Every structure is written in structure tokens, then in C-alpha cells.
UniProtKB/TrEMBL annotation:
Keyword list, A-Z: Lyase, Pyridoxal phosphate
Cofactor: pyridoxal 5'-phosphate
Organism annotation: Stereocaulon virgatum
Transmembrane segments: none
Protein name according to UniProt: Pyridoxal-dependent decarboxylase
Protein family according to the UniProt entry: Belongs to the group II decarboxylase family.
Length: 513
């Protein structure tokens, strides 16, 4: 086949028409029909065709066989699973350009493309949105939570081991972890153990700790008993002090616990206490911001002061991660990483013996090729949708979006709290009704009081295909989680949909007993 002669305009127009049709159905089913899934799986090619079926037939295959059985995670405002945001119209427009031009923003090519400049500016706009001082931070885009935490732990590992190397070998020592390797550097620095101290860490932190060679068993939960997710500062200092001669530490703050949306810290004083301990014992302070970092946008919104405090003071950390494909509502995959030690990231991630990749052409050009400060050498142009959506909606637009999402989450929580059939979780946090309006951000965790119904609750809710919730486990029992992250949320409309589904589940369960 001569691909140069293929006219794909008609195929593209068909895809655009399908997209427009899907976008017009805001109340479309959130899950495909189960029987349709089974049928369409049989339509997928099991082996590569010798001659290919052509663009037109492939378009038919995609439109008729694949698209109808994709879920509506990004399209529907009623998909509440996995903190999955949608895609704002501005981000969708930018995403089409990402595929069309297929840039390589990892290499800074200032005389050939504007791509790396756009990404640099997108990171600056993100810092603006979060009210961080742009002069103090450098950043890079990642795939999301796991990659961001890998970068954070790698930088933290470099920092704490290099400090100990200098202490053991003298301040003029030229050795570093990045050049020596983990085993040799630890031996020279007389380090037997590296510990990560946190509270209710996301699973990606354990995965990241394994990837960077620290091990999942090095992650220790140091929660204060009966306090939710707050740090036990006395226990933390005791651990750091007892191991200061042969171990080093990284402290990780969960800025938004995945099951409940609650925070590990509330207010700048909490971060100051952690910062003081980290400085005292030479530890690295990392914030896993995921979705919670965006609570900073609610600092001036009445009634959301407590939630905003959950992200207050995070600028005191050494590094911060966040997921743009959650509450920023840009396409998967897109995370971000910010660091207050820009040279450190280059020690870890630089491409040695690759002078051709260092392409600055003017002394005033301060942009570093992202491939020297992050994991990937090759990736898609993630920053363009971020740039587009921030410019399109601005601070006020995103504050309004988050306000709607939080109001809806609180309305759902209040409905479940007052319902005889359900229990809002964690029970010790939501003992009183007023705590809903203090603590609920975008996540609602709950269970049915009837154990039999609770075992089937997630499955029965999702079977409606009107809303989708995630299943999890809390205190050893099944629990259901609603995570509100789509930009299209309308509190009153969507609350009625949730109520309708839940009441129908209760009704059918009672009939079947």
C-alpha cells in the first residue's frame, strides 16, 4: 500500500462526527453493555493482517466495534471512579494538535520548535495557579503518580546520601550517588538503612520505593493514634534520632488520602514542624500532592477553609508531585513534579556523553532539556493541553470548577449520612453532621449497614450504568467510594441522579430479601 496516497480526510471527519455525538450526550451510560463487550472482544484482530485492511475499514472497525464499548470515564460527569477527571474543551483542542504535530518536547530545540517553551510556560502557569513562588521551583511533566513519586524519591535519595557522603569524606568530596551507584555510595557514606516515613501512603509510593532500590519495606506509617492521618511527631523524631548514625530518611506527606480525601497535615504549622525535623536530621521532605494539592484553590472560598488548610504550607517541602489528569481535567497521562533543588534533578537524570542534547543557544536561555531532569528521553507533548486549559479558564474558572465538585461531594455525603441504610466513613471523623462541611473535599467513602447489601453495593450501583463508583476496603470491610473530578459536575442535577440510583438499589435489595 502506498500510504502517501491515502486520503484520510473522510475518515477523520467520521471520527470527529463520532466525537461530537458522544460529547453531546452528557448523560450517556457510564459503562458499556456487558453483552456488547463480549461480542466486540470477538471482533478484535488476533493476528496482524498480511496486507492491512486500509484506513477506511480500520475507521469502521474503530467506530463500530471499539468506540461503543469504551466506558465514559472522561465524557460523563457521573463517572466517580479512581479520581478520573474529564477533558476540558480547551484541553481537547490542544490534544488534537499534540497528535497532529507529534513534537518531542523532551529536547529543548529553541530554533526549531516552540514546544519546550510552551511546556516551560505551562509549568510556570501551574505554579501561579497553586500560588507558589516561581523563582524557587523547577519542574517537569511526568506520566502521573508513580513516575512523579519515582522522581521525588530519586531526588530525595540523591540529596540525603550525598549529604552523608560529604560528612564522611569531607565537603570537597566530588562523589555523588548518581555517579557512584547506590551500593557503593551507601558503603562510602556508612549508611545501612534508608527509611521513608509517611501516613496512609498511596500504593504508588510503595511501588516507587521499590523502583528506586529502597524497597517497599522501608515505608513506615507514623500516624498519631486516633488522629486520622496526622503525623506522630514524637514517634517520627524518635525514629530519625535513633538511626541518625547509620540511616537516612525521607518524609512523605500525603496531600489527599486516596480512600477518604482527607489530609495528613492541616495548616502551615504542621508543615513547619515537619520541615524543622527534616532540617535537623538531614531528611528530604516530599509532598505527594496527587489531587489534594488543588485544595489550595479554595483558600478564599467561604466554608472551605479547613480543606484549604490541608494543602497549606506544602511550599516548605523539597519536592511536590501532582496529577494534572485528575482535577486539572487534561488527557491521560499527565503528572507534574516540582523541586526546590534544580541542580539535584540533573545529577540524577542527566544523559551523560550526549552533548548533542544540550541545545541552549543563548546565555539568556534558562530552559533545560526536560530529559536531563526527568525520567523519559521520549514522550508526547503533555504540556500543551495544560497550557491551553489554564489560559482558557484561568484561576477563577478552576476555582469555580473545584467549588462545584466539592459542593456536590458534600451534598452526596450529607444525603448518605442522613440515610438509615448507610454509614459515612471514617466513622470517627464523620461522627457529627457538621464535620461533613469541614472535611469533605472531593471524595465520599461509605458503606451499607446491611452486610449482605454492602458486599454487593458497588456492583449493584454500577449495574445501573447511570453512575460509577469504586470499590475499596476500609477497616477490613468492603466500602464504596465516590470521587468527584469531572469539570462538567452540576451539584443539583447530579445529586438527583445519585439519589435515584441509590434508592433503586435499596428498593430492589429489599424486594429480593
Amino acid at each position: 500500500m502506498n500510504m502517501d496516497n491515502v486520503n484520510d480526510n473522510a475518515c477523520l471527519e467520521r471520527i470527529y462526527a463520532l466525537s461530537a455525538d458522544a460529547l453531546s450526550k452528557r448523560q450517556m451510560p457510564v459503562l458499556p453493555d456487558v453483552s456488547a463487550l463480549a461480542f466486540c472482544r470477538a471482533c478484535l484482530f488476533e493476528s496482524i493482517p498480511d496486507h492491512g485492511i486500509g484506513v477506511e475499514e480500520t475507521t469502521n472497525h474503530l467506530c463500530l466495534d471499539v468506540a461503543p464499548v469504551l466506558n465514559a470515564s472522561g465524557l460523563s460527569p457521573n463517572y466517580y471512579g479512581f479520581v478520573t477527571g474529564g477533558i476540558t474543551p480547551a484541553a481537547r483542542v490542544a490534544e488534537s494538535l499534540v497528535s497532529l504535530y507529534d513534537q518531542t518536547p523532551q529536547v529543548h530545540l529553541p530554533n526549531e520548535t516552540i514546544a519546550s517553551n510552551v511546556e516551560d510556560r505551562a509549568l510556570s502557569l501551574l505554579l501561579d495557579l497553586l500560588n507558589f513562588d516561581r523563582r524557587k521551583w523547577s519542574g517537569v511533566f511526568t506520566t502521573g503518580a508513580t513516575a512523579s513519586n519515582v522522581v521525588g524519591l530519586a531526588c530525595g535519595r540523591e540529596f540525603i546520601i550525598n549529604q552523608r557522603l560529604k560528612a564522611c569524606m569531607g565537603p570537597e568530596s566530588q562523589g555523588s550517588l548518581g555517579s557512584l551507584g547506590l551500593l557503593k555510595a551507601c558503603r562510602m557514606a556508612q549508611i545501612d538503612e534508608i527509611n521513608i516515613y509517611t501516613t496512609m501512603a498511596h500504593s504508588s509510593l510503595y511501588k516507587a520505593s521499590s523502583i528506586v532500590g529502597l524497597g517497599r519495606s522501608c515505608v513506615h506509617d507514623v500516624r498519631r493514634s486516633g488522629s486520622g492521618f496526622g503525623f506522630d511527631l514524637e514517634d517520627l523524631e524518635r525514629r530519625m534520632e535513633s538511626g541518625q548514625h547509620n540511616s537516612v530518611s525521607i518524609v512523605v506527606v500525603s496531600c489527599g488520602e486516596v480512600n477518604t480525601g482527607l489530609f495528613a497535615t492541616y495548616g502551615r504549622r504542621d508543615l513547619l514542624n515537619l520541615r524543622s525535623l527534616c532540617d535537623k536530621y538531614g531528611a528530604w521532605l516530599h509532598v505527594d500532592g496527587a489531587f489534594g494539592i488543588f485544595a489550595k484553590l479554595l483558600d478564599s472560598v467561604a466554608g472551605f477553609e479547613r480543606v484549604a488548610q490541608g494543602a497549606e504550607g506544602v511550599d516548605l517541602a523539597d519536592s511536590i508531585t501532582g496529577d494534572a489528569h485528575k482535577l486539572l481535567n487534561v488527557p491521560y497521562d499527565c503528572g507534574f513534579f516540582f523541586c526546590r533543588h534544580p541542580d539535584l534533578a540533573q545529577q540524577v537524570f542527566q544523559n551523560p556523553n550526549a552533548a548533542y542534547l544540550d541545545t541552549k543557544t543563548a546565555p539568556t536561555d534558562t530552559i533545560r532539556s526536560p530529559l536531563n531532569i526527568g525520567i523519559e528521553n521520549s514522550r508526547r507533548f503533555r504540556g500543551l493541553p495544560v497550557y491551553a486549559t489554564l489560559v482558557a479558564y484561568g484561576r477563577d474558572g478552576y476555582r469555580d470548577m473545584l467549588h462545584r465538585q466539592s459542593r456536590f461531594a458534600r451534598a452526596v455525603a450529607a444525603y448518605l449520612y442522613e440515610h438509615d441504610a448507610f454509614e459515612l466513613l471514617p466513622k470517627n471523623v464523620f461522627k457529627y453532621r457538621e464535620r461533613i462541611d469541614q472535611n469533605i473535599f472531593i471524595i465520599v467513602l461509605f458503606k451499607a449497614k446491611d452486610d449482605g447489601l454492602n458486599e454487593q453495593l458497588v456492583q449493584r450501583i454500577n449495574a445501573s450504568s447511570k453512575i460509577y463508583v469504586s470499590g475499596t476496603v476500609w477497616d477490613g470491610s468492603p466500602a464504596s467510594r465516590i470521587a468527584v473530578a469531572n469539570w462538567q459536575v452540576e451539584p443539583h442535577r447530579d445529586l438527583e441522579i445519585v439519589k435515584g440510583v441509590v434508592e433503586e438499589v435499596i428498593k430492589t435489595w429489599a424486594k429480593g430479601k
